[in-house]
Specification:
The protein is α+β, with helices and mostly antiparallel strands. The chain folds into two domains: 194 residues, 2-Layer Sandwich (Heat Shock Protein 90); 139 residues, 2-Layer Sandwich (Ribosomal Protein S5, domain 2), CATH 3.30.230. 29% of the residues lie in helices and 26% in strands. The strands form three sheets. Strands 5-4-3-6-2-1-7-8 form an eight-stranded mixed sheet. The chain has a five-stranded mixed sheet with strand order 9-10-13-11-12, sandwiched between helices. It has a two-stranded antiparallel ribbon with strand order 14-15. β7 and β8 form a beta hairpin. The longest helix is centred in the middle third of the chain and has 18 residues. Bound molecules: adenosine-5'-diphosphate and magnesium ion.
Length: 347
């Protein structure tokens, strides 16, 4: 089973930023409103995430490190209607199999908390601990027991920049939460709760960028979208018509005068989940065609929402790829929403 966990770790845990992503998503799923992240050595030496979420009782905390122990799915049918970010129950056992982990957690209804230590997948300690309500999890010496993987980690600044980009992503998506990211010497991000996405944009990306951003919003009722139904002989056995509900796009897109030379400034979320999706990137490239020179990129923060059944988040364990059931419709809708916004603002 340890082997299965390490194999899964190969898929889930690529680098410190992927650990941070899994832990951040767990904190969000736990309903946390304050999330603090500390890293040392770009996350190679230490990643610690402390949240004020629901916490775990001792049994749940021990179970959390068992493979496929998720508290978030009860039936196979739930897979079609995933509303939490996590659902595989793979992240914690995978991470724990390739690092040293210390977990301190307490549920609101418990008087004492629990401390669990795991080294390379083996639970070495379980004891009472005077923890505040919520969860703090420290991941030390990532890949200490898998030298071949450890070798592939990049320099401290590179790994740190991936971690910072990821935390920025989630901070942008959750203006109602307080986020902090610290190294042992610097506070890289301190973002107290703000009222809305545009205040968060200003807070996180600064005035230079936020003043050149345009609000972008569009929605359409899937049922009225006139989506062509495939004829019966072309339907898969499991074909179902589009789920009733809305496709919504909202967020901010940059004016033509704001141009970036890398793609790092594109932040896209689908149903609250950070994605790096080719289809959406392509739609954005099309939206800015002949508006931006081909060598430069816009700054984009977009939230897509659609009925859960319209998007398959189950494509890959790291979950940054998704598959849309109505992919070309979603592509064109995003392209048009962004292009209309940018064109309207042109002098
Ligand atoms: P998943 O998120 O897919 O369910 P994980 O391995 O990431 O699987 O986590 C396993 C379980 O541990 C979760 O289902 C949840 O019950 C619990 N858990 C993990 N992190 C936290 C946290 N920060 N606060 C509360 N519960 C947590
Ligand atoms: Mg998870």
């Amino acid at each position: 089973d340890q082997v299965a966990n390490q194999i899964a770790a190969g898929e889930v845990v690529e680098r410190p930023a992927s650990v941070v992503k899994e832990l951040l998503e767990n904190s969000v799923d736990a309903g946390a409103t304050r999330i603090r992240i500390e890293v040392e050595g770009g996350g190679r030496k230490l990643i610690r995430i402390t949240d004020n979420g629901c916490g775990m009782g001792r049994d749940d905390a021990m179970l959390a490190f068992e493979r496929h122990a998720t508290s978030k799915l009860r039936s196979a049918d739930d897979l079609l209607h995933i509303s939490t970010l996590g659902f595989r129950g793979e992240a914690l056992p995978s991470i724990a199999s390739v690092a040293r982990v210390e977990l301190d957690t307490r549920a609101a209804e418990d008087e004492v908390g629990t401390r669990i230590e795991i080294v390379g997948g083996k639970m070495t300690r379980v004891e009472d601990a005077g923890a505040p309500v919520g969860t703090s999890i420290a991941i030390r010496d990532l890949f200490f027991n898998v030298p071949a993987r450890k070798k592939f980690l990049k320099s401290e600044p590179t790994e740190l920049s991936h971690v910072a980009a990821l935390v920025t992503h989630y901070a942008l998506a959750h203006p109602e939460k307080h986020f902090e990211l610290h190294t042992s010497t610097n506070a890289l991000l301190v973002a107290p709760t703000v009222r809305d996405a545009s205040e968060r944009l200003f807070q996180v990306l600064g005035q230079d960028i936020s003043r050149d951003m345009l609000p972008c919003a569009a929605e359409i009722d899937f049922a009225r979208a006139g989506l062509p139904e495939p004829p019966p002989w072309k339907r898969d056995a499991d074909y179902t018509p589009p789920e009733p509900g809305f496709l919504r796009v909202r967020g901010f897109v940059s004016k033509p005068e704001l141009q970036k030379l890398n793609r790092g400034s594109i932040y896209v979320f689908v149903n609250g989940r950070q994605v790096r999706d080719r289809l959406i990137l392509h739609a954005l490239t099309e939206a800015y065609r002949n508006i931006l020179p081909p060598t430069s990129f816009p700054v984009v923060l977009l939230f897509l929402e659609m009925p859960a059944a319209e998007v398959d988040v189950n494509v890959h364990p790291a979950k940054t790829e998704v598959r849309f059931r109505q992919s070309s419709f979603v592509h064109d809708f995003v392209r048009d929403a962004v292009r209309n916004t940018v064109m309207k603002a042109r002098p």
